[in-house]
Amino acid sequence: MELAGLSVREDAVGNIFGRWDGVEPELAAVATGSHIDAIPYSGKYDGVIGVLGAIEAIRVPKRSGFKPRRSLEVILFTSEEPTRFGIGSLGSRLLAGSEDLANSLKTTTDIQNISFLDAARSAGYSKNEDDLSSVFLKKGTYSAFVELHIEQGPILEDEGISIGIVTAIAAPASLTVEFEGNGGHAGAVLMPNRNDAGLAASELALAVERHVLDSGSIDTVGTVGILELHPGAINSIPSKSHLEIDTRDIDEERRNKVVEKIHQSAIKITKTRGVKLSDFHVINQDPPALSDEAIIKAVETATKELNLTSKLMISRAYHDSLFMARLSPMGMIFIPCYKGYSHKPEEFATIQDMSNGVKVLTLTLAKLSSH
C-alpha cells in the first residue's frame, strides 16, 4: 500500500487501511478491499484478488492523473476465515460495531488455549487495551464499499460470462453441538447397552442434510464441516462428540427454521440414544445483505464501457461485504474461477479474468468517488 502511495494505518486487531485522499477529503470515502488469510489446504485467490486488485485499481487512476472527489481507501480485513478462533469475518464484524463480539473476544481462545488478546499482542496489535471498541467505525464512514472476489462457484465459467454483479449475500448461521455418552470398550459393551456419542453426532449430521433438503429451496444449504470424537481410538466407544455446522440461505426466516429443526433433532437424538446434549450454541445467525442499487448500476455501466459480459447473481458464500453493508452501501464484483473450485488447492483464476475484474473495479471506484 505504501509503495502505491497510500497513507497506511492499522487498528487494534490488525485490519489495515490504505488511503488516497480525494479533492474533498472531508467527504465520506469510497472503500474497497478483502482478506488474505486462508483456511488450511486452500487456494491462493480467495480474498487475495480483492486486496491486490484493490491496490492496483487505485494505482492505475493515480498514474493517469485522475483526481477523485472522495477519498479512496483499501481495507485488508483480518481473520475473514474462522480458522483459528472459530469466528468468520472477525475484522469486518468488529468494524461494523459488534459489541457482543468485542466482549466475547476477551475470553476467546484457540485450540492451543492461546487467547485472542494474547495472540493480537504477540502480533503487535492491541498492546495496551482490552477494549476493542476502538476498532468500531461509525455508520456513514464510507459512502460505498465494493469488494472484488472470485465467484467460488461454477456459474460464470459455465456460462462464459466475464463479470458477476452481486445483488445479495446469503445469510449464514454457525452452530456448535456437543453430545456426551458413556463410552466404553469397543468389544466389551454390547450394542443394546451403548450410549454412543459418535452415532448421535452422525445421526445429527444426516438430520442437517434432511432439514436443508426439506426446506423446499435450492438456496438453502447446510454443512457439517467439523465432527470430532473423544477419545478417538478405534477400540473405544466415543464418549463425547463435537460438531460444527454451517447453514445458509438468502431467506433469513427459512434459514432460521432450519436452525430450529436441527436443534429439535438434537434433542430427539438424546432421547432415542440415551446421550446428553451438553452444548448447542449458535455462534452467529446473521441477516442477509442486499447490494446497493447505485453500486449495482455503477458496476453494470463499467462492464458495458469495457465491452464485457455480465450477470446479476446472488453470493451464497458470505464475505466481509456482508458486514460492511451495516456501515455503508455495499456491492460486490465476481470473476470466474476454474470449475468453481474454492477452499481447495485447485482454486484458480486466469490472468485475463483477474484483469477484467480489476478494470471493472477501477472504473466503478472512479464513478463512485466522483459523486
Can you characterise this structure?
There is one protein chain. With 371 residues, the protein is of the alpha/beta class. The protein folds into two domains: 7-170 and 288-369, 3-Layer(aba) Sandwich (Aminopeptidase); 171-285, Alpha-Beta Plaits. Helix content is 32%, strand content 26%. It contains ten helices and 15 strands. Strands 1, 2, 3, 4, 5, 6, 13, 14 and 15 form a nine-stranded mixed sheet that branches. Strands 9-11-7-12 form a four-stranded antiparallel sheet, with helices on one face. The protein is globular. The model has no long low-confidence stretch (mean pLDDT 96).
In short:
This protein is α/β, with parallel strands linked by helices and 371 residues long. The chain contains ten helices and 15 strands.
Q: What is the C-alpha radius of gyration, as a whole number of Å?
A: 23 Å
What is the CATH top level name of the largest domain?
Alpha Beta
Gross CATH architecture of the largest domain: 3-Layer(aba) Sandwich
Annotated CATH topology of the largest domain: Aminopeptidase
**Binned strand content:** 25-35%
Order of helices and strands: EEEHEHHHEHEEEHEEEHEEHEHEH
How do the helices and strands line up, and which of them pair or pack?
Blueprint: E1 7-10, E2 16-20, E3 29-35, H1 48-64, E4 72-77, H2 90-95, H3 99-104, H4 116-122, E5 142-150, H5 155-159, E6 163-169, E7 171-180, E8 184-185, H6 197-213, E9 221-230, E10 236-237, E11 240-249, H7 252-273, E12 276-285, E13 289-290, H8 293-305, E14 310-315, H9 320-324, E15 330-335, H10 351-369
Parallel strand pairs: 3-4, 3-5, 5-15, 6-14
Antiparallel strand pairs: 1-2, 2-4, 6-13, 6-15, 7-11, 7-12, 8-10, 9-11
Helix pairs in contact: 1-10, 6-7, 8-10
